[in-house]
Amino acid sequence: MLNSSLVNITVKGLVKEMNMGTVSFDNIVQRGLAWEENPAKGKDQKSLLVHSVIYGYFIPMFIAVSKEGYKDMLDGKQRSNTLKEFRNNEFPLNLINVTEDEKIVDYVNEKGKAKTCDLNGKYYKDLPVEIQERFDDRTLYIELFDENMSDDEANTQFFRSNNGKALKAAERSWAMTKSVQTIDDIGQNMLFEKMLTPKAREAKIERTIIMKAWATLTMDEPVWEDKDLAPILKETEITSEEAVALNNVFTRIMEIHDLVDNKRIAKKMYGRTHVTSMVKIIADSIEKGFKPEYVADFIGHFFNGGRSTTISTEYNKTCSSGSNRKTSVGKRIEILNKEYNKFFDKYDFAAKDKQIKEKEEERIRLEEEKKLEEEAKRIEAEEKAKRKAEREAKKKAKASEKKKKADADADKLAEAEKIRLENEKKNAELQKMIEEKEKEDQKPEKATEVNDVDEIEDVALSA
Question: CA 194, CA 191: separation in Å to the nearest integer?
């Protein structure tokens, strides 16, 4: 029995937790972001949600599982991302399905005055602060299940919570699928990274390809339509052996694609219908030990239909409307198998092996040439760097020598200046002495007489 509790959170709080990573949508049941954003088609659910938040309309409950340190959202990805995007000013409101009266909302500004705001065409940043706060503070409710909820129970909850809503057929099949984690693990194969656009990856289109490929590989009469495949996948688990086989097939398809010289044909090969249709012949080629180059030749032959997809008119007809019907799927697989066997009944394996060997030898030769060329460039670069370093060293030494000479000359000049200053000082002192002597010599005569009397007295005393 499941245990849950009702918790509330504001829009601002939800966005904050999303930014912090404490709300996650990375689980086995979540679908990609598929809300229609074209207002011309009257399906702008994003703007309608934001308007509902501001105007006060009911917002459906979010569903999450409590994990260690975060909430794992089972339902509410579209709404959560929309609220975050609007708050980040990533889109304006296009209220084409809102009445003129409801496009205008009342509020009271900070001065207490009643005001109105036309929401249509507004980004979050364009809204009055009071309306921004109304948006930020709107309470949302989350049905939070405890951490003991299993993946199967989460899967069932997702299906039940979306029952009656506009889920695509593939999404309904996925919600009922038992081996969800195995399929997502297979979905990490590099083939899907190469053959699908980022938008297709976001929408998890690889899940549908894998489910159809599994049906093609394991069923005598494969079914691709969701109404037939979903009940089977609801009850059947993909075994580890089947998972390995599918991974090997997808890896081999990628290898074959890269070996097809004609890029137009290689592009055709990556069509989703063709990839899932060729699963059996690729698995057979792996079992028989065929080299990827062998099968690349067959692909180049079979898909070389000029303006048509393939050389088989019957095959091409099954790829149009109703391509998922059991009869169309069976016919395509039958034609592929027939053409595959016919091609290899007359195939010259020895000649191809010789060609592969020659091509490999040529590849090795070119690689060796490239290595030698790179080595020569490396040596040349090293020599160039060495010569440059020597020039720099010589230049540095020359500059150092020049500096030393300049410093020596500066020292000599400084010494000469010192001597000059000392001489000037001595000359100044000498000049001062001369001037003082001259002053002494120019003293009054009286003073001289007194000095003479004193000298006579000194002579008399000494006698």
Answer: 5
Q: Does this model's pTM top 0.70?
A: no
- Write out the E strands in 146-232: none
Total residues belonging to the chain: 463
Strand residue runs (E) in 76-157:
104-108, 114-118, 139-145
What pLDDT was estimated at residue 195? 92
Residue 360 domain flag: no
Q: How far is CA 146 from the centre of its chain?
A: 32
Domain of residue 281, residue span:
190-347
Q: Which two tokens stand for residue 102?
A: 């409801």
Domain identity same for 250 and 315: yes
226 and 153 share one domain: no
Token digits of residue 163: 């029952």
Q: Which of 313, 347, 381 represents a domain boundary (last residue)?
A: 347
Question: What is the per-residue pLDDT across 66-108, written as a single tens digit (0 to 9) for each?
Answer: 988 888 888 888 899 999 999 999 999 988 878 888 889 898 8
212: in domain: yes
pLDDT surpassing 60 at residue 336: yes
CA distances 384 to 378, 387, 389, 394, 396, Å, are: 10, 5, 8, 15, 18
**DSSP structure class, residue 312:** -
**Residues contacting 66, CB < 8 A, separation 6+:** 72, 144, 145, 146, 147
Provide the domain count of the chain. Answer: 2
Do 222 and 257 sit in the same domain of this protein? yes
3-state secondary structure of 293: helix
CA torsion sign for 14, 170, 316, 194 is positive
Band the pLDDT of 260: cuts 50, 70, 90.
very high
Burial of 183 by CB count in 10 Å (0-12 exposed, 13-18 middle, 19+ buried)? buried
